[in-house]
């Protein structure tokens, strides 16, 4: 690896998967950078649900990590075979129809497809997934000396020859050549950069993330499963989980599940996005109290400390808006395009951002006028398509409906 440059660093706000993969790209290109994260450490809060990786998502990660780094990443991923999604009636435990091969078709009463088809397998005919926590740890490897925890970026200021991040306590970062906002749906950088054009809408749907020992999933068996409950008078409840082979007899291995519900079903005091642990776990247990015995272990044996409540949000379904380009500031991941978990597009689009921006910066040897404009031009095309697809799935599956007059977060 070449000697580290004496140039001013690229500043990165946030230490989520898109921010850390960008940092990894800069590290490999010997471009100096600093990461600022408001949390106290990588283990400060629950990591959320398991991420399903698309072919494009895997290609993006591989392009950044290179052969050796990607092999470590690939070895950490779980690979699930089977015939695509299988659906189970959560109250009776019986199978709903047949698993579809490599796609989901949401059907109406006349059996014609009502929603878009969702690809599941991504490489070698397998459904490939990895926990958010494992992904962050792998992307962070080697970047640790350049990460500053407990630094909440609330704005930025341009200088004559660079940019500074401004923190919640009023202090400022060193001057950087460029700032990248990668701090998620509440990004202050995104709001300032886009002059309010980047908005994240509250769909009204809510969810719970949970984990349980792999032995709790033996009643399901290998596959990608949707557990559907239409019996709740307030609306539909469902759980999606990915059960990998070869680990269902090991109680030391944990699998995750993601619960979602239509608007009005899940409510917490003050609609507190930060609700984690036992209070979030109790909500999931209450909603599944009448579920079939083959499914109950997923909730009865869950690790309560890892449970987390979340709001299901989405950017404007019409796509990522345009804003006046600022050569020294841009945004990646959820800061640029929030998506529902339907379709599994969010994380895959985020890593595509990191790979694209990292490649452009690498080719330029660091900051160069025109880099952010070129990145944003290309990013808007594929991310707008992903947002539309994500919203399309969610509107069919969860009955959500948003437009530019909807409530924002």
Protein described:
The protein is built from eight helices and 17 strands. It has helices spanning 17-28, 55-76, 132-140, 188-194, 278-287, 297-300, 346-364, 371-398, and strands at residues 10-13, 33-36, 50-53, 78-80, 85-89, 95-96, 127-131, 147-148, 153-158, 163-167, 178-181, 201-213, 223-229, 237-243, 254-261, 308-314, 329-331. Helices cover 27% and strands 22% of the residues. It folds into two domains: 10-45 and 132-200 and 316-398, FAD/NAD(P)-binding domain; 82-120 and 201-314, D-Amino Acid Oxidase, Chain A, domain 2 (2-Layer Sandwich). Residues 98-117 have low confidence and may be disordered. It is α/β, with parallel strands linked by helices and 409 residues long. It starts with 9 loop residues before the first strand and ends in an 11-residue tail after the last helix. The radius of gyration is 21 Å and the shape is globular. Strands 6-5-13-14-15-12-16 form a seven-stranded mixed beta sheet. Strands 8-2-1-11-17 form a five-stranded parallel beta sheet, sandwiched between helices. The longest helix has 28 residues, at 371-398.
Oligomer: single chain
The name of the CATH architecture of the largest domain is: 3-Layer(bba) Sandwich
Distance between the termini: 43 Å
Estimated radius of gyration? 21 Å
Order of strands, widest sheet: 6-5-13-14-15-12-16
CATH class of the largest domain: Alpha Beta
Largest sheet: 7 strands, mixed
**Class by alpha and beta content:** alpha/beta
H/E series: EHEEHEEEEHEEEEHEEEEHHEEHH
Helix content: 25-40%
Provide the CATH topology of the largest domain.
Answer: FAD/NAD(P)-binding domain
Give the total of beta strands: 17
Portion in strands:
15-25%
Broad shape: globular
Individual helix count: 8
The CATH homology group name of the largest domain:
FAD/NAD(P)-binding domain
pLDDT < 50 runs, ≥5 residues: 98-117
């Amino acid at each position: 690896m070449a000697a580290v440059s004496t140039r001013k660093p690229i500043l990165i706000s946030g230490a989520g998967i898109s921010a850390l993969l960008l940092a990894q790209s800069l590290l490999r290109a010997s471009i100096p950078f600093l990461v600022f994260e408001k949390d106290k450490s990588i283990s400060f809060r629950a990591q959320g649900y398991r991420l399903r990786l698309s072919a494009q998502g895997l290609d993006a990660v591989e392009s950044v990590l290179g052969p050796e780094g990607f092999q470590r990443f690939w070895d950490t991923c779980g690979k699930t075979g089977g015939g695509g999604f299988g659906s189970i009636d959560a109250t009776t435990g019986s199978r709903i129809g047949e698993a579809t091969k490599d796609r989901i078709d949401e059907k109406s009463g006349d059996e014609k497809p009502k929603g878009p088809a969702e690809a599941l397998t991504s490489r070698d005919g397998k459904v490939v997934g990895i926990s958010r926590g494992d992904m962050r740890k792998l992307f962070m490897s080697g970047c640790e000396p350049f990460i500053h925890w407990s630094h909440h970026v609330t704005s930025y200021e341009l200088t004559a020859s660079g940019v500074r991040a401004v923190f919640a306590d009023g202090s400022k970062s060193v001057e950087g050549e460029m700032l990248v906002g990668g701090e998620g749906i509440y990004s202050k950088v995104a709001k300032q950069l886009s002059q309010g054009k980047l908005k994240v809408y509250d769909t009204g749907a809510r969810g719970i993330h949970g984990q349980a020992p792999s032995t709790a999933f033996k009643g399901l068996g290998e596959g990608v499963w949707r557990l559907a409950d239409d019996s709740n008078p307030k609306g539909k409840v469902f759980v999606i989980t990915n059960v990998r082979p070869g680990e269902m007899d090991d109680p030391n291995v944990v699998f995750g599940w993601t619960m979602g519900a239509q608007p009005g079903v899940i409510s917490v005091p003050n609609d507190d996005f930060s609700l984690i642990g036992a209070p979030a776990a109790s909500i999931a247990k209450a909603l599944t109290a009448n579920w079939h015995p083959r499914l109950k272990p997923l909730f009865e044996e869950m690790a309560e400390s890892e449970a987390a409540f979340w709001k299901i949000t989405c950017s404007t379904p019409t796509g990522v808006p345009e804003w006046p380009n600022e050569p020294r500031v841009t945004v990646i991941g959820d800061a640029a395009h929030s998506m529902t978990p339907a379709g599994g597009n969010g994380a895959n689009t985020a890593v595509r951002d990191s790979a694209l921006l990292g490649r452009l910066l690498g080719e330029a040897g660091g900051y160069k006028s025109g880099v952010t404009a070129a990145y944003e031009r290309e990013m808007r095309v594929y991310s707008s398509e992903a947002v539309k697809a994500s919203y399309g799935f969610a509107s069919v599956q969860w009955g959500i409906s948003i437009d530019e007059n909807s409530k924002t977060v």
